[in-house]
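Follow-up to my post from last week.
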Amino acid sequence: MEQIPSCLFCGRCLNVCPLFQLSLQEELSPRSKAFSLNLLLRGDDPITLEDISPLMGICLGCGRCYEECPQHIFVPDMVIRVKERCPSFKRWVFGRFISSMPWIFQGMGGIVRGIGAMLPVPLSVLLSYASEPPADAFELPDNPPSSPHSPALVFTGCGGAFLRPIWSERALFITSFFYEPISAPPFLCCGYPLLFAGLREKAKEYMLKNIEIWRDAGRPSIVVSCATCELALSREYPPVFEDEKERERWRESIVSLSSLVSKLNMRLIKGDLDFVFHRPCHLSLEYFEKLFHVMRGAGAKIVKEDNCCGFGGSMRLENPTLCDMLGRGMWERIGKENTVVSGCTGCIIQLKMMNPSGSVFHYLDLIKI
Amino acid sequence: MTSAGEMAVYGSDASREFAMPWVVVRPSSSSQVRELLKWAHMERVPLVPRARASNVVGACVPVRGGVVVSTLRLNRILDIDDTDFVAEVEPGIITAELQALLEERGLFYPPDPASASISTIGGNVAQNAGGLRAVKYGVTRDYVLGLDVILPGGKPLCVGGRNLKDVVGLSLLDLFVGSEGTLGFFSRIILRLLPMPEDSLSILLGYTSLSRAVDVGIQMLRRGLVPVAMEFMDADVIDCVRDISPISFSPSLGGLLLVMFQGNKGDVSHCLKVVKEGIARGAHLFQWGREAQEKEIWEVRRLINPASHRLGEHKIALDIAVPRSRVVEVVEKSKGIGGEYHLPVLTFGHLGDGNIHVNIMYGDGEEEFRAAKDAASKILGVTLDVGGTISGEHGVGIIKLPYISRQLSPEELRIMRGIKRLFDPHNIMNPGKAY
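User reply:
Got it. Predicted complex:
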């Protein structure tokens, strides 16, 4: 395992790590993970990979510690490296869950349903979410703000592909205001959930297939609607490329759907719209400021919520108790009766699971097409 | 908790020294702490209290093994009283969180160690933390009115109370403050509060030399201005933070002076006027502000520690204190000693109280480490030669223990160790530390 920067023990990460804040258990903190891995790499202390592997499984992968770390240590990367070397049954199950998404959602997943209790999320919540009506609070202008000028693919991740196909329809429609959408085979999972479960090879397989789809489509822009997918596409995909020019082209091709939506002159269809915007950890609140500006300009009242919901990817299998405590804590702060909007499939699943009767939407659900 | 993977983090602190604990416990009530101290006393098992472990001297490292006791779940605020102007808290409350809560009520807990947003009141009391505001307000000791302590064996002891004046008997309270966890376990801390100052303003002055910056600071004091904080940064420190600083610094700057004034609006404006119209003339950088701009000025100061590692993976961080008149001399000699060993030496800190942070930066390898240690030893010698102290605010822990007999006489050490035996006859409380 390659060397990593040393943790200085400054403690800044303690103030932002949702797990530490919740539990006050220092062993769960980012600095614990960074420090114990450093100890291991030093090689002269009584600590083994097996000692630290369970600890590494208890990380939400939110990356909030990275934002504070003076050493720029990205703990989720370290967690991934350890998980890769310590495969576990639960991580394998998580991988199977991700790769079984098409079967689950296309109603052919009898066997998968049979092991429902082992799955990271209750299937009933996921399966019924697809048919919940959208909020349809805003209508779009009759005329597009600009004429489409270049080709684009739309990347809505597992959310748009399986969980809630309406997101794909809407993302495609909004994209068509700015780009020429291209017909292409659907993208697969972005790969990040697999990567974070330590299943790098599987993740890479998905990444390469997605890159192939992009290449075959003529390397167009990719409009992304999910925060975690956007993180994966912009952070994890570039190292996969061998050709420097193509890597740059990929980087330049990533477009956030929220940046397109924020250029639309939306109108509220009727009355008031109050909602809480839950920040996905993988994008900052500032990232969504333009979107808020436009929605507020149209009359929406938005309260920003900057705490982690506790989804945690494969951590849901490794320590569901902590994930649930974070999710419930979030609803207690928000109020279960309030509408919550976010921009990440994982967050939306977690929020919905923790409050199945609650109104939880992607911002795409707010925009009637 | 007994697994090595979980316990590893509890074996270190910001000194980055390490020793694996035998066990880690996380009590959430003082009755649990009493039981623990009773058991440890009976079994002669070392106990190492620990909160956020931000101290840089190894005070939380279990060098003799034993049980690390995390205080993080002892974090309740027991009372805030705006008549007596006191707060009663458990040791695990974060200092900055307490300060923010007090501020909402118009109350003020002045001690402000650089780690305030990370560190806890318990840790601050154990180390008698200083900080930026010591020039006007003093250090943690000046704000501890009372303590509930659980002694080895489990016996509770209450010292002090809510009285601002108390001259009965020897002050046991003062023994506990700064005792580095060697005498007993704090279960309740009574803090003295002040009314929140009405106004706060900070000034940043830059000069081509450090001695000029220091002269200007001294002039302010002579003019009757009493700043809350008065900090300096040398040219190498400016270079270190330049890239990440919210304020841009020209390469010609050789010294910075950061000053904070607090009080009523009239007083603060008067201080600004005196600085603007006289003292600041000739400054190459002059910036002042309130609120967000003030925060920006102090962010520069808070960035030093993380930024310093650009010059070396490791550091020996000295926090010597000398009479104010000797600051420049000691800084220059420290830099000279660094030069002799080809190691970067950063100096910055609290000009107002002569407390200089000297960071000797070094890289990997035994040779550099030995050179850094030799340089540190020489700098401590220079400090003691001018009547200074080897630690102004960090404490001794394990890092400065080898040097302690150069400052304290055998008789002083004999008395200190004798006092410890009275409280802790089996030497279970944080053994191998401090004195």
